[in-house]
Amino acid sequence: xxxxxxxxxxxxxxxxxxxxxxxxKQYVPAVDIFETAEAVNVLAxxxxxxxEGVEIELENETLTIxxxxxxxxxxxxxxxxxxxxxxxYLRKFTVAETIDQERIQATMADGVLTLVLPKIAPAKPxxxxxxxx
Amino acid sequence: xxxxxxADQKLFRNPWADFERMRRELDALFQGTGPESGGxxxxxxxxxxxxxxxxxxxxxxxxxVPAGEVEISIEGDTLTIxxxxxxxxxxxxxSYHRREIECGRxxxxxxxxxxxxxxxxxxxxxxxxxxxxxxxxxxxKPRQIKVNVG
Lengths: 133, 150
Fold this sequence. Notes:
The complex is a heterodimer. Chain A is built from no helices and 10 strands. By secondary structure, chain A is mainly β. In chain A, the strands form 2 sheets. Chain A has a 5-stranded mixed beta sheet with strand order 1-2-8-6-5, with no helix packed on it. Chain A has a 4-stranded antiparallel beta sheet with strand order 3-4-10-9, with no helix packed on it. Chain A starts with 11 loop residues before the first strand and ends in a 15-residue tail after the last strand. Chain B has a 4-stranded antiparallel beta sheet with strand order 1-2-8-7, with no helix packed on it. A 3-stranded antiparallel beta sheet of chain B has the order 3-4-6, with no helix packed on it. In chain B, a hairpin with a 2-residue loop joins strand 3 (71-75) and strand 4 (78-85). Chains A and B meet through strand 3, strand 4 and strand 7 of A and strand 1, strand 2, strand 5 and strand 6 of B.
């Protein structure tokens, strides 16, 4: 195969002041953020998170993405190779654009969250005519 | 590695066994490839492999690839997982703020530790994690041996 093959991205653990109470790992999901004229789009990689486990909050321009994993129990299995560990995901962003909170859309497919944050239509420049008396 | 196979065991007790084990574990730690050190390989996707008496379980973390587009093939005792991730949009008119998700083709081959029943392999996908269940061949399954009294 001549093409460059994909590499595994190291999952980064969340570094934060508060310690989590649950003994599970918390990762920073890898994201793509791109902006179009109408919206800010966020793609977040959260393998193992079901649709029900995703929480999205937007408060005071801080966007919080949280994904919780229901840990699977594999009783009686002997581990031969372990390259990933399940854990929850947490990431926060400051969203500078004025976002229309009512129209935020989120979809979860194959472990990737797609968020569309539509911008509030900017106020059209108004020309004020000066009338002579 | 947690698995103990007959061939790994020394016939006589080696007084240095503990030191050797320690050295192996340290090596694994520094290479970052030990099964318990949380080390990751470099080829996508990341795999977790485990076994029980009946099956080998291969779990792959493949977010962003629809279940139907993951190609899984087996040749002898080599399992290959292939596919392509296409979730990235490469449009000039978008302005990117972050680009952390990598796209492109991937393929990863692993050698299975034992023979498997090729026609009974099952695979399922949920939330970006693909689970492949490979039933072990009858010949390598552990067998209970009854002790006859008398």
